[in-house]
Amino acid sequence: MQLIRPFTHQDSSNAVSQELWIRIWWALFAADNWCSSSLGFPRQMKDWPRPDRSPMDENIFAGMAPEEALQDLNEPCQNPGLWAHMATLHEIFGPIQELNWLAATNKELQPSQMELDTENLAQRLDDWQKALPEEVQLTDPYLVGHSKRGTGGIFMGLHLAFHHYATLLFYQYLDPKSALTMRGRQFAARCKHHALSYSIWLARGRRQSGCEAVYPTVGHMAIVSSSVLLHTLLFGEEEEIAQSHDCLKANFEALLELKEYWPNVNTMVNDPFTPL
Predict the structure, then answer these.
(1) 262 and 205 in contact (C-beta within 8 Å)?
(2) Distance CA 193, CA 187 (A)
């Protein structure tokens, strides 16, 4: 519970433990978002005070010595790392899950208001992506570069999460009843785009040494992506079918690989609605 209060210099004897505290806080924040969404519970850390500094660059952190001087927590981090961008992405994930929960439980929610809220969150996701530094953008050269730096797994996890959160945001618009307007149909198209992108980059990461995403939530995200791809196979346009088929196959191969590490993936495959 000490993580609730703001962190101060007195809480740490060296720079390494100071940075560790910041990283632990954001790791717990991410876990709170994931666990609350899967179990249907309110987020516990939603209104907790955030650390003033974001996590630093992973390679700088790995090279730190305990005797280094403590950082000024009131000053912004000069070299934010991948976990810093993950932290800001998680700030958007919570509201996405809350909106989906509201849509599922509040029968009086007006479709026009739902579209407006979806548009606002979509803009936040777009702004987040545009604000990423060039070397953090999802391109093949930067993927290879992070692989060589030893940060390929974090880099891949960051962008897989982005495409997954976007898929969740637009997911309900796959229902024709929710896609009666032009904006609703655009949301449905964006859902398909992000589900495809998730699959394409998951497969690309599996082919690049050091970029493999083998943590259990990847299985859950792959199943969500696969459900969209399956929807496209059944109800999509003819020109969409071939790519959706290939991506669905790639997701299945990734799930088979994940089962070797995490037996619970088998449960998720057999019952996709099982909470994580």
Answers:
(1) no
(2) 10
DSSP 210: T
216-235 helix and 152-170 helix, angle to the nearest 10 degrees: 40
- Give the Cβ contact number of residue 72 at 10 Å: 10
Judge contact between 198 and 163, C-beta under 8 A.
yes
* Closest among 225, 156, 154 to 195, alpha carbons compared: 225
Q: How many helices (H) and strands (E) does the chain have?
A: 10, 0
Q: Write out the two tokens for 118.
A: 């979806």
Q: Which residues of the chain have pLDDT under 50?
A: 1-4, 6, 8-10, 276
Token couple for 151: 């940060």
**Cβ atoms within 10 A of the Cβ of 62, count?**
10
Give residues with Cβ within 8 angstroms of 214, minimum separation 6.
257, 258, 261
Running DSSP on this structure, what letter comes out for residue 176?
G
Per-residue pLDDT of 1-41, as tens digits, reads 444 454 544 455 678 888 888 888 888 888 887 676 666 66
Sign of torsion, CA 61 67 73 79? negative
How far is it, in rounded angstroms, from Cα 264 to Cα 272?
11
SS3 80: strand
CA 59 to chain centre: 22
Question: What is the 8-class DSSP label of residue 56?
Answer: B
Distance CA 87, CA 66 (A): 25
Among residues 93, 99, 73, the alpha carbon closest in space to that of 19 is found at 73
